[in-house]
Write a structure and sequence with these properties.
Shape: globular
Strand content: over 45%
CATH topology: Neuraminidase
Number of helices: 2
CATH architecture: 6 Propeller
Number of domains: 1
């Protein structure tokens, strides 16, 4: 039985300092809550699905104190949601088989041209949205809407190939976009050995996380492999980790890989405070050298050169989400199978590069924690000197009796 509870916090920060975060569990609200999109410190959306209900988009207008379902068109399951910070009520959710949009924040209708198995939805510009996924070309690309998600146009990231499929996107301007890409050694057989007799795969979100459906009850559940699971498996037809970051400066017409590295990790989330200041996270869990597994944080200050800012080693360490809220302040979020959910914060103006900001305590040994797709959606500061409430962040905390 898979239960999902939501832990919500309003993160407060002032220039050069970080106040302690206040976190409150919101209890069990769904079977699989995968994506989140925040408008500000009060309003946010959650995307996922619940057994007996199907796909869901939940909304809060009181900083996470309460969540209510929105009205949606028929869908199986949603993977992510993006919410506009400039146009009230505008949001887009993407699922396994298509996207939906809302113009009032209450009712979602089917859009045209979304889908693409994309698990990354971002709002940008006046009323634009981008989805990264299988949108043409050898390695996929992005689908971009300039009308609030009503319709999308596909842009293949021509610099990517089959070995470097598109995963997450960032859109710091109307013409400059980034896409993270990569793959991990094939491990589908490990999931099938453990869960395949009683369930079927719907979406593999990362190397360690899948969304599956129970063949008997038709209920959805999320499974997370352990480091031991991976260590006991064998490599499939993909022989190594691949990672790349693609960039376009002309609104998707031409693309260049500004970073590419194979053999050590694949990329997850990416976000930019401007066209030149960005953060991206990567991870690997089954390298030949077990001591080399772990998560990585990369940043750029010119949009061209990427520097590995932080490495957190450990087979169970994962980073999925990242946000730059200014040219100097960044956040990354993920998990550690040993200690559960971890947030990272760093500010280039401070003497330290990074600190572990918050860790959950795991209260009993049979609890399995994971973050299928966590995005630390942080609101932009109004100025560089005034204190600001960085937006609402929702984190999935998975409590499960895992299936043998």
């Amino acid at each position: 039985m898979m239960k999902i509870s939501i832990v919500v916090g309003i993160l407060a920060a002032s220039l050069g300092t970080v106040a302690p975060a206040s976190w409150k569990s919101q209890g069990t609200i769904g079977s699989a809550v995968i994506g989140c999109g925040a408008v500000d410190q009060s309003t946010a959306f959650l995307a996922g699905g619940d057994n007996g209900v199907g796909a869901e988009v939940l909304k809060t207008t009181d900083g996470g104190g309460s969540w209510a379902p929105t009205n949606i068109s028929q869908a199986f399951m949603f993977l992510d949601v993006g919410a506009s910070k400039t146009k009230a009520g505008s949001a887009v959710v993407n699922g396994l088989f298509g996207s939906q949009f809302s113009l009032d924040g209450k009712t979602f209708k089917s859009g045209i041209g979304g889908g693409g198995q994309g698990q990354s939805v971002e709002a940008f510009g006046a009323n634009s949205f981008g989805i990264a996924g299988a949108f043409g070309g050898k390695g996929g690309g992005v689908a971009v809407s300039t009308n609030g998600g009503i319709s999308f146009k596909h842009f293949a990231a021509s610099s990517l190939d089959e070995a470097h499929p598109a995963r997450y996107g960032a859109y710091p301007s109307d013409s400059t976009w980034y896409v993270t890409a990569g793959a991990w050694p094939s491990n589908a057989h490990i999931f099938e050995e453990r869960f395949g007799s009683k369930s079927k795969l719907h979406k593999q979100l990362s190397e360690m996380v899948q969304v599956r459906e129970d063949l008997e009850t038709r209920k959805l559940f999320t499974v997370t492999l352990t480091g031991e699971d991976l260590a006991g498996g064998k490599y499939g037809n993909v022989t190594e980790y691949t990672g790349a970051i693609a960039k376009t400066n002309d609104g998707g017409k031409t693309w260049t890989n500004v970073f590419e590295h194979d053999g050590d990790y694949y990329f997850n989330g990416i976000h930019c405070a401007s066209e030149t200041h960005c953060i991206a996270v990567a991870e690997a869990h089954n390298l030949p050298d077990p001591n080399a597994n772990g998560a990585h944080i990369f940043t750029t200050t010119d949009g061209k050169t990427w520097t590995e800012t932080q490495t957190d080693l450990g087979r169970g360490v994962s980073l999925m989400g990242a946000r730059f809220v200014s040219d100097t302040e960044g956040w990354a979020a993920g998990g550690n199978l040993a200690v559960s959910v971890v947030f990272y914060y760093f500010d280039r103006k401070l003497p330290f590069a990074l600190l572990i900001f918050f860790i959950f305590y795991r209260p009993f040994p049979k609890v399995a924690f994971g973050i299928p797709s966590m995005e630390a959606n942080l609101g932009q500061r109004k100025s560089s000197v005034e204190s600001a409430r960085l937006a609402l962040t929702a984190v999935t905390r998975i409590t499960a009796s895992r299936r043998a």
